[in-house]
Structure formats: C-alpha cells, structure tokens
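Friendly challenge for the regulars: who can give me the structure tokens for this chain first? No prize, just bragging rights.
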Amino acid sequence: MDSDLVALSESVGAACRQRRLLLATAESCTGGWAAQVITHTAGSSEWFERGFVTYSNAAKVDMLGVREETLARHGAVSPETAAEMVAGALKNSKALIALSITGIAGPTGGSPGKPVGTVCFAWCRVGETAVAETAVFAGDREAIRRQAVLHALHGLLLRLDAS
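First reply, four minutes later:
Bragging rights claimed.
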C-alpha cells in the first residue's frame, strides 16, 4: 500500500475517532479505492461505516438516490452529482460524515468541457450542506485515480480539522 495513502488514512481515522464520527464513501471512477485505503488502516472498523461503489448511473440512482434529472442535466461527472452522491451516502448509512468521488479516469471518455482527468468531489456532515468541487488531474488512469483518492481524503481531513 502506498505510504502517502496509508499516512493520510491514519490521520483521517484519528480525526474521526477523536470526533466520534463514522465515515461513509460513495465512489465511481475510483471503484472503491478510497474504501480500500481506509480499511487497510488497522482499527478502521471503529470509524468507517460503509462504502458505496456506484460506477453506473443506474447504481447512483438506485443506491444513492441521485436524481435522473441531475444526471441528464449535469452529467455523472459534475459537482451536482457528487453532492447528491454524498447526501445519499449519508442517508443510506449510519455515517455522520461522508465523501464522494465521480470522474473520468480515462484513457477515453473525456470531452472538451470535461477532459480525461476531471474528477468531482463532495464532502458532507449530517445536517450540513455538501461542499463540492472539481479538480483536473494529469497522468494515466491509475495516476488519476490515485490523485483522486488522495484529494478526497485530504479534503475530508481538512474539513475534520476545521470542525
């Protein structure tokens, strides 16, 4: 396991334990990689509740309650979809905080408006409004996915540290 990911997961775990928060993940392009990194951390069962891998649009709708209208209007790779994914992860779990990742890891699937490497994220605590953002990463499929997991966990840690 990548030492940067391990260290970040351990920091997220310590912050969740300190705040007594259970975490859920909702992932698309990373295919459960964030959940894998988290569960690699010994003791993660104390703070990780569940992960959703919703690769298809149908899975996003069925498992997380993403609205078909949102997917039609904004696409699967959009801050709007990421926000609905994170809200669905909270609604369909016992977690008190969640993150979501949806993007285009490549090598195909990009467009001029959303090139390969475009990834949208959202983070949310129960009772709060989701914060969503978009980043564009360079590299091959694995590099983009790794950067997305790092970004998602780092963003979560920043939000935990701010609370």
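The domain at 3-162 is CATH 3.90.950.20 (Maf protein). The chain has a mean pLDDT of 97. Your move, everyone else.
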